[in-house]
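Structure in, sequence out. Go:
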């Protein structure tokens, strides 16, 4: 992890290689990005977001995606002290790689499963489990991150390719 990354770590993290999976765009000044959040209309079964981040050049975006791949090799599990709960023991996270769709100029996909200790704010619940699925796709100088947060009832859900593919095509057209 670079000195810049260490300075931008959000809080105490047990594995410095994992910082990119908490805050992948940790630059001064912040790169231009657009975030869109949406969710299921029925029973709040899932939430999702897309983040488009513009890099200065295709080479810069390719380097960022390569750095994320490299970080994945050194980051499988980590712990963040007190990120969501004031006096609790914090959040434990496990990353697992999954098959990335053949989209864009390069792609990476992974799952991030978190267990957050909330016992200090809710004595009846020791911890809350959250599963997030990320697909990161580079198209030229843009990195598109597709995040899906399904509920436990739809744990196997992936970000719908029928939503992702048209966005990737539009990015190709804008080059």
């Amino acid at each position: 992890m670079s000195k810049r990354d260490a300075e931008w770590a959000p809080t105490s993290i047990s594995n410095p290689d994992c910082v990119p999976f908490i805050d992948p765009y940790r630059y001064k000044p912040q790169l231009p990005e657009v975030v869109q959040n949406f969710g299921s209309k029925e029973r709040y079964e899932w939430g999702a977001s897309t983040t488009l981040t513009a890099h200065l050049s295709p080479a810069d975006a390719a380097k960022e995606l390569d750095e994320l791949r490299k970080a994945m090799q050194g980051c499988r599990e980590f712990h963040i002290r007190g990120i969501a709960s004031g006096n609790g023991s914090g959040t434990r996270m496990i990353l697992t790689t999954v098959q990335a769709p053949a989209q864009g100029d390069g792609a990476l996909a992974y799952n991030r499963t978190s267990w957050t200790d909330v016992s200090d704010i809710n004595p009846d619940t020791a911890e809350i489990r959250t599963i997030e699925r990320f697909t990161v796709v580079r198209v030229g100088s843009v990195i598109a991150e597709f995040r899906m947060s399904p509920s436990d009832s739809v744990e196997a859900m992936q970000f719908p390719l029928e939503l992702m593919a048209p966005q990737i095509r539009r990015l190709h057209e804008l080059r």
